[in-house]
């Protein structure tokens, strides 16, 4: 089998070489930032966990942070998308649970959440704070700029390519690298 490096997925027995980010830690840190700002009613919105282990791990980090703070974690809103995020409807969950903050499992979904909140007459961050994951550039062009857990995509790609070449050319052993993410504070989060 040719050398293979997993990018963004945890190593397996069959593919022990991988370059990842600590998605559990990123979900945990995003939640701790919100709870430190006084948020207790925090909703987690994502695509289906079956389709994304990253979203599942980020949610597990959220659950752990909520547990440590003695706050009940609510069940995640998992959305199976066929089309785009522009028609996301959160009216039912907003009627049942009045979140002061929403964590979206990626930035594109965070944009959809912000749009859905606006359609409900809510303002971000005055009424509901929103946090995303990934750190895509368009999030910084929004008004206000999106608060996000920035993922090091370029560093991950370069590390994976370097590891793959090292394995192919030098018979280097398969290794697992965990690249650091960082919190990028924007204007979509406020203290309550």
Automatic annotation (TrEMBL):
GO MF annotations in UniProt: DNA-binding transcription factor activity; transcription cis-regulatory region binding
SUPFAM superfamilies in the cross-refs: Periplasmic binding protein-like I
Domain Transcriptional regulator LacI/GalR-like sensor: 32-188
Signal peptide: none
Any one Pfam family match given in the protein's UniProt record, by short name: Peripla_BP_3
Highest taxon in the source lineage: Bacteria
Stored PANTHER family: HTH-TYPE TRANSCRIPTIONAL REGULATOR GALS (PTHR30146:SF109), LACI-RELATED TRANSCRIPTIONAL REPRESSOR (PTHR30146)
Protein name from the UniProt record: Transcriptional regulator
């Amino acid at each position: 089998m040719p050398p293979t490096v997993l990018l963004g997925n945890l190593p397996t027995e069959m593919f022990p070489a991988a370059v990842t980010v600590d998605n559990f830690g990123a979900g945990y840190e995003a939640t701790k930032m919100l709870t430190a700002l006084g948020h207790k009613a925090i909703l987690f919105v994502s695509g289906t966990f079956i389709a994304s282990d990253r979203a599942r791990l980020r949610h597990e980090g959220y659950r752990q942070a909520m547990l440590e703070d003695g706050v009940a974690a609510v069940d995640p809103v998992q959305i199976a998308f066929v089309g785009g995020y522009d028609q996301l409807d959160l009216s039912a969950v907003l009627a049942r649970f009045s979140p002061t903050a929403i964590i979206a499992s990626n930035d594109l979904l965070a944009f959809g959440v912000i749009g859905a909140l606006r359609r409900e007459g809510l303002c971000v961050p005055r009424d509901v704070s929103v946090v995303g994951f990934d750190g895509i550039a368009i999030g910084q062009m929004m008004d206000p700029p999106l608060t996000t857990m920035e993922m090091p995509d370029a560093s991950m790609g370069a590390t994976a390519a370097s590891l793959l070449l090292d394995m192919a050319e030098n018979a280097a052993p398969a290794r697992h690298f965990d690249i650091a993410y960082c919190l990028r504070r924007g204007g979509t989060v406020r203290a309550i």
